[in-house]
Amino acid sequence: MRNWIIIALSALPLIAGCGKDDRNKIAVQAVIEKEVARRVENYRQVRMQRCYEKALEEASHQADSILLLEARLERDTLSKPPKPHKPEKPEIKTLLDSTPIKPLLEKHRKPEKDSLERNGQ
Q1: Distance of CA 109 to the CA centre of its chain
Q2: What is the pLDDT of residue 120?
Q3: Percent of the chain as helix, strand, coil, to the nearest 5
Q4: Which of 1, 66, 108, 112 is 20 to 30 A distant from 16 in Cα terms?
Q5: pTM of the model
Q6: Distance of alpha carbon 120 from alpha carbon 84, whole angstroms
Q7: C-alpha–C-alpha distance, residues 67 and 74, integer Å
Q8: 88 φ/ψ sector (left φ>0, alpha ψ -120 to 50, else beta)
Q9: The pLDDT value given to residue 57
């Protein structure tokens, strides 16, 4: 009988340990759900940031296109006038001059006396 009690007491913890432990599974499930929620939120933020940047880039492109179009419409539509044609070379007329040709400067002209020069030096 005593053996029977020892066997029953040693088997009791084994039987209790073989049962389902829901506390551990619930805690693990909660951690998993929390991590999934964090990743989903992070994914949404990244996608929203990409979407915002893409929308901003497209808006900038459209604004540039509109500004270029307005600048082209306001530009002067008249083109430059063509270059004028070069006139014909006129005929050179020679005049008959009866006055004799003489030099502008005389060769044998006596130099004037320098006013700063000392007495005859």
Answers
A1: 78
A2: 54
A3: 55, 0, 45
A4: 1
A5: 0.41
A6: 68
A7: 11
A8: beta
A9: 96
